[in-house]
Amino acid sequence: MISEVTGIETIRMLYLQLLYRCNFACLHCFHGERLQHADAFTVGEAAGLLTLMRDEYGTEAVTLLGGEPFVYRELPEVVRYAKEELRLRVEICTNGYRVERRLARIASHLDVLRVSLEGVGATNDAIRRTGSFTSALDALRAARDLGVPTGATMTLTSRNIADVLPLAHTLADLGVQELKLHHMRPVGNAAAHPELLVSDVSAYGRLRAELAALRTPLEIVVDEEISATGGPATCATTTRPRTVHRIEADPRGALTLSCNAVGNDAYAFWYEKSTGRITHRPSAKDELSQAVPDVVYARA
């Protein structure tokens, strides 16, 4: 259905939000009030979507996230199915809070553990949860000791932009391979915290210059909207490429092609769990009608 409507034939990665539920309520979380919702994939539903994506769109990798994926009780079953049955590259994006025991159960099937951090020490904890910084570093150490490659993500805000370089050095010392910097979008919890938005965009220019001069084995990848000019308001063209990097499925089955559309209820496609099919639900507000541009990431 996606290919018929858009011309997209290959989708390299599925971002699969297994559930909304989370043990955190981060100030910038795009889920907002949905963190309290019970929607979730069953193992069978997750396996069905993963199989469909591999068979119909050549999907090679899956990132499992939530909510908090380690809160999902059947996480080992989904990880094993993705790796053993489908031979997908499997990544988990987590808050890293007390996950060591559960991580050990799936380490042999995991290609990357990516931990979300919002700065160093108290800066991180004020946005995420008290004690979360120490726990996240413990998770990264545990993954390293288990032989699982690691990465980290950080959403830039007015409170933590000065922490990017110190965090980069901390992560490099732990052997983390990549830090991915996201631009904050005012949806979900972030809509209630406009003070977190970086109002002085010249700070982005200074940060980019500092990152360009940084010498570290840690690879830093930056959302291109983290700049003085920002990203485009709409797609440059209404014709999509035949191959795209990712698609994201929320716990209800709603599918999003653009990161910029996540959290905005701009869904054009849905995975119908009951039938195991993807359907097109066009509207004047969907991401195709609005020509929502995707986020572009590049090395710093």
What does this structure look like?
This protein has 300 residues and is α/β, with parallel strands linked by helices. The protein has a single domain, classed as TIM Barrel (Alpha-Beta Barrel). Helices cover 27% and strands 21% of the residues. It contains eight helices and twelve strands. The protein has helices at residues 2-6, 43-57, 75-85, 100-106, 122-127, 132-146, 164-173, 202-213; strands spanning 10-17, 61-65, 89-94, 112-116, 150-156, 178-183, 219-223, 243-249, 254-256, 269-272, 277-280, 297-299. It has a twelve-stranded mixed sheet with strand order 11-10-9-8-1-2-3-4-5-6-7-12. Helix 2 runs parallel beside helix 3 (75-85). The chain is globular. The two termini are 36 Å apart. The model has no long low-confidence stretch (mean pLDDT 94).
Q: Under the CATH scheme, which architecture would be assigned?
A: Alpha-Beta Barrel
Q: How many whole angstroms does the radius of gyration measure?
A: 18 Å
Q: How many E strands? A: 12
Structural class: alpha/beta
Taken together, the total number of domains comes to 1
Binned, the helix content reads: 25-40%
Using the alpha-carbon principal axes, give the shape: globular
Features:
globular, 12 strands, alpha/beta, 12-stranded mixed beta sheet, TIM Barrel, 300 residues
Describe how the helices and strands are arranged.
Layout lengths: L1 H5 L3 E8 L25 H15 L3 E5 L9 H11 L3 E6 L5 H7 L5 E5 L5 H6 L4 H15 L3 E7 L7 H10 L4 E6 L18 H12 L5 E5 L19 E7 L4 E3 L12 E4 L4 E4 L16 E3 L1
Parallel strand pairs: 1-2, 1-8, 2-3, 3-4, 4-5, 5-6, 6-7
Antiparallel strand pairs: 7-12, 8-9, 9-10, 10-11
